[in-house]
Design brief:
Layout (H helix, E strand, L loop, with lengths): L2 E6 L3 H12 L4 E7 L2 H11 L3 E5 L1 E2 L2 E2 H10 L5 E6 L4 H9 L4 E4 L4 H19 L6 H8 L5 H5 L9 H13 L5 E2 H8 L3 H13 L3 E6 L7 E6 L2
Parallel strand pairs: 1-2, 1-3, 3-6, 6-7
Antiparallel strand pairs: 4-5, 8-10, 9-10
Organism: Gallaecimonas pentaromativorans
Main location: cytoplasm
Protein name: Transcriptional regulatory protein
């Protein structure tokens, strides 16, 4: 099932951009958008989202205050703070309240991808029910040195080496290409959802970058290109 998300953002254009971007991901479902603190409280109470994209400055309050209230109510949603504020104190407070990432406006989509990849990894590791080890703690808290990751060449479940090589080759042969999951699926003879799984994996490995392509008709399409 897709991960449920609530977006709390007072700028409608930014909120819609985030919603459209997440809408291109098969593994995320936006439950709703709140442009103020009161609406956000109701949406979170009703939807119990797994992920909360939360702005700090809201017309009827403060996102950090809202997060504090939610924590006192026992809401355990993972939180990515989104703000134009650059105060170190805001970052420190967000971390104290359990936010696992912090995005500064204007939002760079590549950086948003990194935050979403971190969420996916955290969620997968917690769901696996592993025995608690220092290595697992380091991965969950983002303090892994990378040495163990570099030495572990095993691919995650659902990623086949042969198919991965085919997807990678498409971009290596044409580094300028910007391809959607649907296009990649057609080129390698796989479904759109399968292609997206491999594209998202390469994204987490920092081999690809993703952006939204705005055509003349319809919703924006998520496209991938080789990281130069």
């Amino acid at each position: 099932m897709p991960h449920s998300v609530v977006i709390v953002e007072d700028e409608i254009a930014v909120a819609q951009l985030l919603a459209d971007y997440l809408g291109q991901c098969d593994d995320f479902q936006v439950l709703g958008i709140a442009t103020d603190k009161a609406t956000a409280s109701r949406l979170v109470a009703l939807g119990q989202p797994e992920l909360l994209l939360l702005d700090i400055h809201l017309p009827d309050g403060n996102g950090l205050e809202l997060l504090g209230e939610l924590r006192r109510q026992g809401v355990g949603s993972d939180v990515i703070m989104v703000t134009a504020a650059k105060e170190v104190a805001a970052l420190e407070k967000a971390m104290q309240l359990g936010a696992f990432d912090f995005l500064v406006k204007p939002i760079m989509l590549a950086r948003l991808d990194q935050a979403l990849a971190k969420f996916r990894a955290r969620h997968q590791q917690l769901q696996q029910g592993e025995v608690l080890t220092q290595s697992l703690v380091d991965k969950l808290l983002g303090t892994d040195s990378g040495a163990s990751a570099a030495s572990d060449t095993r691919l995650p479940k659902g990623i086949d080496a042969v198919t991965l090589s085919k997807v990678r080759q498409l971009f290596q042969e044409d580094p300028q290409a910007q391809l959607s999951a649907e296009k990649v699926g057609a080129l390698i003879g796989a479904s759109r959802s399968t292609a997206r799984r491999y594209l998202e994996f390469l994204l987490t490995q920092h081999e690809l970058v993703a952006d939204l392509s705005y055509g003349s008709i319809g919703r924006p399409e998520r496209c991938y290109r080789w990281r130069r």
